[in-house]
Amino acid sequence: MKRIIVGISGSSAPVYGIRLLEILRDVDGVETHLVLSAAAHRTIELETEEYPIDRVRSLADFEYHPHDLSARISSGSFVTHGMVVAPCSMKTLAAIAHGLGGDLLSRAADVTLKERRRLVVLPRETPLHLGHLRNMVALTEMGGICLPPVPAFYHRPHTIDDILRHTVGKVLDVLGIEHSIFTRWDGPPAE
Ligand SMILES: Cc1cc2nc3c(=O)[nH]c(=O)nc-3n(C[C@H](O)[C@H](O)[C@H](O)COP(=O)(O)O)c2cc1C
Fold it and tell me: Which residues have a Cβ under 8 Å from the Cβ of 162 and sit 6 or more positions away?
């Protein structure tokens, strides 16, 4: 059983984390552990009509309060496959890059790094100042993976969900989870 921690922080586009949970629910042998930051409650409320908070919570196998620093995902002795922060606000990025661990989301990310497990963050802000970029460098130097949710167009997306699935598929690739949620580039179509 692969335990994946999913953190949803309070930047725009919580729908990335929500689609990730939905897709992981259909993957055999995966167990999801969700932590929503306090700010994520607000962005989910403001940006998604079809996903009330309780529906988002119900997508995960386990869910934790962001202030519960005694939750099992705050300890490295609780073995996980890795963690995804989707999306990752600049505040949470800074907290992870500096090892602050003041809430459960950044603590679980810190634990994931110290245990040398996969940490994938989807930083969401634009434009970026030097501090944001330095935090991404620091996180990368510590072994984390920055996977900005930047859409590709080579797969000819027609819907927002096509764009979401492409980014979620890239997340699954770096977690080493097989999927067929997008069509892989196989060279240009024959003339
Ligand atoms: C609708 C909305 C959209 C936001 N979008 C972003 C964003 O894209 N990136 C970001 O870093 N912060 C964004 N914020 C600000 C964060 O919510 C704020 O910095 C918060 O303190 C982040 O807390 P957290 O990292 O603990 O979730 C947004 C806030 C709101 C209300």
Answer: 155, 182
Output the domain CATH number for residue 58: 3.40.50.1950
Closest CA to 92 of 169, 166, 33, 9: 9
123 lies in some domain = yes
Evaluate if pTM is beyond 0.85.
yes
Q: Which atom of ligand 1 is nearest to the CA of 37?
A: 27
Specify if 87 maps to a domain: yes
> How many CB atoms lie under 10 A from the CB of residue 134?
13
Q: What is the mean pLDDT of residues 37-50?
A: 97
Confidence of residue 37 (pLDDT cuts 50, 70, 90): very high
Residue 178 covered by a domain? no
Across the range 90-110, mean pLDDT stands at 98
pLDDT band at residue 189 using 50, 70 and 90 as cut-offs = confident
11 CA → ligand 1 middle, Å = 4
- The number of angstroms, rounded, from the C-alpha of 107 to the middle of its chain's C-alpha atoms is 15
| Ligand 1 geometric centre to CA of 92 (Å) | 9
Domain count for the chain, please give it. 1
Q: How many whole angstroms separate alpha carbon 11 and alpha carbon 163?
A: 18
> Which pLDDT belongs to residue 39?
98
Q: Which domain holds residue 121?
A: 2-149
* Closest ligand 1 atom number to CA of residue 42: 31
- Residue 37 is assigned to a structural domain of this protein: yes
* Mean pLDDT calculated for residue range 157-185: 96
